[in-house]
């Protein structure tokens, strides 16, 4: 269950990116440029503050062709060669998204206000050096691994639900029931 931010809900769905703090999304050692482009586009769509890669310089150029939202023209992009080169803002907590035995299941996780989410390569894991830098490691409760860009989207959607200022869901199936009051107008003149 999400821990609510205590902020008033947004006035409409268009303001759903109403969150305190900031977040970034990045990948370590990615091998497929199409997935990298999709991760960057997803971060941009959810209102990310910046995007990054670690040890993926050979894939970054190809990513620019697959990111149809042109994320790196709209958000800062950092390309670090190694985990040691990462320079995040003070107070930013790294959240690894990885299937490990001790990872917290995403629905039980409280997202930090200032976070950098990092995902590993498609056919591998986050490096031991990256896991050591992570303040938190979360896993998506699935039977097996999902696509890298899907995992990024799920993590960011969960963050939006938890920190986006949304009210609790209705008890009954369907959308919220709007309690609209009748507004009395001026008397109608009959002619």
How does this structure look, described?
- There is one protein chain.
- 35% of the residues are buried.
- It contains 4 helices and 7 strands, in the order E-H-E-H-E-E-E-E-H-E-H.
- The N terminus is likely disordered.
- The protein is 24% helix and 17% strand.
- It has one domain: SPOUT methyltransferase, trefoil knot domain (Alpha/beta knot).
- The chain has 191 residues and is α/β, with parallel strands linked by helices.
* Main sheet record: 7 strands, parallel
So what's the CATH class?
A: Alpha Beta
Strand content: 15-25%
Q: Spell out the CATH superfamily.
A: SPOUT methyltransferase, trefoil knot domain
Query: Topology as H/E string?
Result: EHEHEEEEHEH
CATH topology: Alpha/beta knot
Q: Major sheet: order of its strands?
A: 3-2-1-6-4-7-5
Determine the fraction of residues in helical runs and give it as a percent range.
Answer: 10-25%
CATH-derived architecture: 3-Layer(aba) Sandwich
First-last Cα distance: 59 Å
Q: Flag low-confidence runs.
A: 1-17
Number of continuous helical runs:
4
**Counted beta strands:** 7
Structural class: alpha/beta
Overall geometry: elongated
Radius of gyration, in angstroms, nearest whole number = 20 Å
Question: Which tags fit this structure?
Answer:
191 residues, alpha/beta, Alpha/beta knot, seven-stranded parallel β-sheet, elongated, disordered N terminus
């Amino acid at each position: 269950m999400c821990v609510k931010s205590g902020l008033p809900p947004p006035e409409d769905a268009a303001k759903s990116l109403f969150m305190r703090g900031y977040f970034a999304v990045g990948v370590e050692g990615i091998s497929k440029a199409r997935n990298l482009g999709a991760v960057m586009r997803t971060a941009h769509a959810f209102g990310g503050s910046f995007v990054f890669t670690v040890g993926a310089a050979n894939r970054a150029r190809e990513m620019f062709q697959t990111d149809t939202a042109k994320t790196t023209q709209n958000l800062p992009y950092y390309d670090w060669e190694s985990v040691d080169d990462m320079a995040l803002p003070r107070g930013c907590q790294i959240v690894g998204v990885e299937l490990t035995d001790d990872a917290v299941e995403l629905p039980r996780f409280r997202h930090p206000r200032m976070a950098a989410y990092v995902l590993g390569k498609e056919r591998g894991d986050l490096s031991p050096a990256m896991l050591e830098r992570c303040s938190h490691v979360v896993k998506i409760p699935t039977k097996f691994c999902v696509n890298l860009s899907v995992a990024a989207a799920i993590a960011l959607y969960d963050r939006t639900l938890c920190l986006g200022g949304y009210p609790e869901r209705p008890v009954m199936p369907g959308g919220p029931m709007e309690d609209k009051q009748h507004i009395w107008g001026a008397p109608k003149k009959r002619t």
